């Protein structure tokens, strides 16, 4: 039996190496592998008999993360990807090795972009770190997993001219109010979706939004946004508490996908060639505030960044913009 298993491993190894390196001498490789394995007995892994406790611990992990304030979308993402992992590896958590994780990632991440691969790695790291902290497993097999290098993407903020073109391309009162709200608050898309009319302090021209990790913060809007928002609200006869609602009855809360489509439609009407999406308004907000002289700690607070390094990215991008402008006139 041991001999049969050994032969199977030798054949598989030679086959795999031949695929990776087509020009290798298969007979020579086989000889070398057989020589290395000569004094070893090889047994197949009895996966069918191994009881996996991943699903059970996953349920507790997700419940804990929900209490920590993770959004429903993030929890769904964690559950979906960790269930994929559970289906792939039917064995007890204490027996999982770094190699098991690497093999899973190699299979799961075929054809994925570096950002998506890093997302998969982060989910595994978070789960196994929690398992160690809760003392379900003695050591963390995910600790050796390294993030892949992502290409640095330079997202150029919208120019004042582009923003003005967007303003002029708006037709309905809702479009005008939505665009101005995005320009002046720098809110995340999820925050815009969640805003209610009652959250707005018209006198102070501010409102409270619920950001990442269910954290509340105060943001401000300009006079133009105040006028356009009030004008838009006067056109509504519904009783929905949301600040932005659908144009068709029964006037439900305007969702994230709808806002994305709306912005895309306005940008096309404005004749703007580059991709315009809600998060670009937030990016432009930070860049313009920085260029106008606002300090990084203030921008960090207004944008709800937990880590100052996130805000620092805008400072670096701002420098790129300054260089770009300088080169244009030199």
Q: What integer value in Å does the Rg equal?
A: 27 Å
In the residues, how many domains can be counted?
3
CATH topology of the largest domain: hpI Integrase, Chain A
Quickly count the helices.
Answer: 14
- Beta-strand percent range: under 5%
Distance between the termini: 77 Å
Looking at how many chains there are and whether they match, the oligomeric state comes to single chain
What is the CATH class designation of the largest domain? Mainly Alpha
Strand pairing plus helix content: what structural class? Answer: mainly alpha
Q: Main sheet?
A: 3 strands, antiparallel
| Major β-sheet strand ordering | 1-2-3
| Sequence stretches where pLDDT stays below 50 over 5 or more residues | none
Q: What attributes characterize this protein structure?
A:
three-stranded antiparallel β-sheet, 330 residues, DNA polymerase, domain 1, CB, hpI Integrase, Chain A, elongated, DNA recombination, chromosome partition, Integrase-like_cat_sf, mainly alpha
């Amino acid at each position: 039996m041991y001999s049969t298993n050994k032969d199977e491993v030798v054949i598989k190894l030679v086959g795999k190496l031949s695929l990776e390196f087509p020009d290798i001498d298969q007979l020579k490789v086989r000889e070398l592998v057989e020589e290395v394995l000569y004094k070893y007995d090889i047994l197949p892994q009895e996966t069918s008999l191994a009881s996996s406790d991943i699903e059970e611990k996953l349920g507790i992990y997700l419940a804990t993360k929900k209490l920590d304030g993770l959004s429903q979308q993030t929890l769904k993402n964690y559950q979906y990807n960790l269930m994929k992992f559970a289906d792939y590896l039917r064995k007890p958590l204490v027996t999982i090795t770094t190699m098991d994780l690497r093999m899973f990632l190699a299979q799961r991440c075929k054809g994925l972009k570096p950002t998506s691969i890093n997302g998969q790695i982060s989910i595994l790291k978070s789960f196994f770190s929690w398992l160690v902290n809760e003392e379900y497993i003695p050591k963390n097999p995910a600790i050796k997993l390294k993030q892949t290098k992502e290409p640095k993407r330079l997202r150029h903020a919208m120019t004042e001219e582009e923003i003005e073109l967007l303003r002029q391309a708006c037709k309905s009162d809702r479009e005008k109010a939505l665009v101005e709200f995005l320009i002046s608050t720098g809110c995340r898309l999820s925050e815009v979706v969640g805003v209610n009319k009652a959250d707005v302090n018209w006198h102070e021209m501010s409102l409270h939004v619920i950001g990442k990790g269910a954290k509340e913060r105060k943001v401000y809007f300009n006079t133009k946004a105040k006028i356009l928002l009030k004008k838009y609200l006067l056109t509504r006869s519904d009783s929905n508490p949301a600040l932005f609602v659908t144009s068709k009855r029964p006037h439900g809360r305007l969702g994230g996908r709808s806002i994305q489509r709306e912005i895309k439609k306005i940008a096309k009407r404005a004749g703007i060639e580059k991709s315009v999406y809600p998060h670009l308004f937030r990016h432009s907000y930070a860049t313009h505030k920085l260029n106008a002289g606002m300090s990084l700690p203030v921008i960090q607070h207004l944008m709800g960044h937990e880590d100052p390094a996130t805000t620092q990215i805008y400072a670096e991008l701002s420098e790129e913009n300054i260089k770009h402008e300088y080169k244009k006139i030199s």
